[in-house]
Structure formats: C-alpha cells, structure tokens
Amino acid sequence: MSNRFRRDKEEEEIEQEIEIKPVQKKVTLPRNFFTVLLTDGVISKEAASEMMPFIIFLAFLGMVYIGNRHFTEKNIRSIDKLNKEVKEMRWDYKTLKADLMLRSTQTEVAKKVDTLGLREPVEPPKKLMVPALTEK
C-alpha cells in the first residue's frame, strides 16, 4: 500500500507540472492607411533601418536649428537692453550738459563767488603804459 500511495502522489505532481498553456492569439493590425504604409508600403522595417542614419542627421539639424534660434533670441534681448541703457545715459548726458551750461554763465558764477567775498568790478580795467626802453 505504501508504494501505491507514493505512485499516486508522483502522478499528481507530474500532472500539476504539465500545465496546459493557453495559446496566445496573434495580434492582427487593422487595415488602414498607416498600417499598410508602414508594413507593406514604401516604409517597411528594412527601409526604416536603412534610413536611420539620415533620420538621425535630420534630428541633429533640428537640434542645431533650435539652439541657434535660442542663441539669437538671447542676443536680441541683450541688444535691446543695451539700447535702453544707451538712451538713459544719453538723457543723463543732455541733462548734465544743460545744467553745466546754466551754471557756467556769468551771473551764476557771480552768485557762487559772492559767498567767498569776491565781487565783480564795476570800473573798467585800467591800461598801464610802459615807456619804451632804448638800446645803448
């Protein structure tokens, strides 16, 4: 009896090990324009693998184009910023120049010097005559 029980147990283990695997269905693609184009048409797996270097080259050119555009926009922004600074400095220059022109007039100088005790002479200057020296 013990042999028979062991045999039954082994048969059950073998049956458990042999499981029936479900058969997977093959996925069929719907027949539309894109699937026909990519499988049967001009662009197949072989053609796509042959075009890969060209596609990588196009992607590289696209990245260079995008980088160049960012660089250009950055330069344009900096040029605009510098133009604004130049305008502000030009306004400051004109303001300071006008102020300096006002301060350098005779009446303004006389007002500033008056606090030091200096005054504008009322009399015209006198001409000094030096007698001519004769040579001996």
Explained architecture:
With 136 residues, the protein is mostly helical. The chain has a domain at 29-114. Helix content is 67%, strand content 0%. It has 4 helices and no strands. The chain crosses the membrane at residues 51-68. It comes from Arcticibacter pallidicorallinus. Keywords: Membrane, Transmembrane, Transmembrane helix.
Strand proportion, as a percent range, falls in: under 5%
Largest sheet: none
Number of strands: 0
Portion in helices: 55-70%
Order of helices and strands: HHHH
Low-confidence stretches: none
Per DSSP, the total helix count is 4
Instruction: Output mean pLDDT.
Output: 82
**Distance between the terminal alpha carbons, to the nearest Å?**
170 Å
Outline type: rod-shaped
Radius of gyration: 51 Å
Q: How would you classify the helix and strand content by structural class?
A: mainly alpha
Question: Key features?
Answer:
4 helices; rod-shaped; single chain; mainly alpha; 136 residues
What is the gist of this entry?
With 136 residues, the protein is mainly alpha-helical.
Write the layout of secondary structure elements.
Blueprint: H1 2-17, H2 33-39, H3 45-103, H4 106-114
Pfam families: FtsL_2
Keywords: Membrane, Transmembrane, Transmembrane helix
Transmembrane segments: 51-68
